Amino acid sequence: MARIFRSIRLVSVAVVLAAGCGPRSASHVEIAPPPLPPSSQEQVQPEEASAEGPAASGAESVRAAPLVPHAIRTLRTQGNVRQVPDADADVIATLPAGTPVALLALSGGWYRVRTDSLGGWIWAALLNLTDEDQWDAAMSFAAPRFVHTGLFRVVRRNGPALEIVLDDAWAGMSEAEKQRTALDTGTAWQRAADQMGLDPRPPIRFLSADDVEMARWDDGQGAHLLR
Q1: Checking DSSP bridges between strand 161-166 and strand 204-207, what pairing results, if any?
Q2: Burial of 166 per CB tally in 10 Å (0-12, 13-18, 19+)
Q3: Is 188 helix (H, G, I), strand (E, B) or coil?
Q4: What angle do CA 213, 14, 124 make, to 5 degrees?
Q5: 216 has which bridge partners?
Q6: For every one of its 227 residues, what pLDDT tens digit does the chain have, with 9 covering 90 and above?
Q7: Contact assessment for residue 46 and residue 57, using Cβ atoms and an 8 Å cutoff
Q8: Contact 128, 76 (CB under 8 A)
Q9: Ramachandran category for residue 25: left, alpha or beta (phi over 0 → left; psi -120 to 50 → alpha)
Q10: 77 DSSP 8-state letter
Q11: Whole-angstrom distance, CA of residue 211 vs CA of residue 152
């Protein structure tokens, strides 16, 4: 049976959340090892979590990916719209619960939004999101925190699980190295799922290029090597 995948493209620790030029749809993007060149897209920093969202750490940059068409969502609680996607950034406005906003782009768990009178960045967890939105936001937040991205060809959603297609280098790794890779990735994904309200936390399946499951991470059970 055909499977529909939602994918993101990781470039080292930089990430671009895959988005089409028409309605949001399934996509499949491979990971490219070299960093992307500068562009007109706004560059922002990955951040450490706070009550509203992450605060900038001054590390590698994350590129915002446009969302087309612009979905309309409402705030589930009062929330700040900030100048850049950073919990310490200047507040442009504080919007009351129920305010509708258009989602323009996504970066590191922050949505770039627009109202009739202003635009800026808002932490994804402050919005009433669909299940698909929550997954997008969680994957966007987790991607720059995956420390073993050199091993990851593709990161995608498949039904209730996150799937990671591994590079051939996996075969030459020791059991301890494989265990650490699965555990580190699971820890980053657990944090992202908690930030974006994915409950239960989706499992991770680590797959070979020919779709054989090599390892698994499950919430509460940890990492398990299969091959």
Answers
A1: parallel
A2: buried
A3: helix
A4: 85
A5: 205, 224
A6: 434 344 443 333 333 333 333 334 333 333 333 332 233 333 333 333 445 666 654 434 446 778 767 899 999 999 999 999 999 999 999 999 999 999 999 999 999 999 999 999 999 999 999 999 999 999 999 998 998 889 999 999 999 999 999 999 999 999 999 999 999 999 999 999 999 999 999 999 999 999 999 999 999 899 999 98
A7: yes
A8: yes
A9: beta
A10: S
A11: 13
CB atoms under 10 Å from CB of 109, counted, come to 27
Q: How many residues are there in the chain?
A: 227
What is the rounded CA–CA span in Å between residue 193 and residue 223?
16
Sign of CA pseudo-dihedral 62, 66, 71, 74: positive
Q: Which residue has the tokens 């490219």?
A: 32
Paired residues of 103 in beta bridges: 113
* pTM, full prediction: 0.74
Side-chain-side CA neighbours of 104 within 13 Å: the count stands at: 13
Q: Where are the alpha helices (DSSP H) in 61-174?
A: 131-142
* DSSP string for 53-106: S-EE-S-S-EE-EE-SS--EEEBSS-EEEESSSSTTSPEEEEEPTT-EEEEEEE
Tokens 């705030």 correspond to 75
Give kind and range of the element (H or E) at residue 106.
strand 100-107
CA distance 34 to 207: 22
Q: Write b or e for each residue in 121-133: b if 16 or more Cβ atoms lie within 10 A of its Cβ, otherwise e.
A: bbbbbbbebeeeb
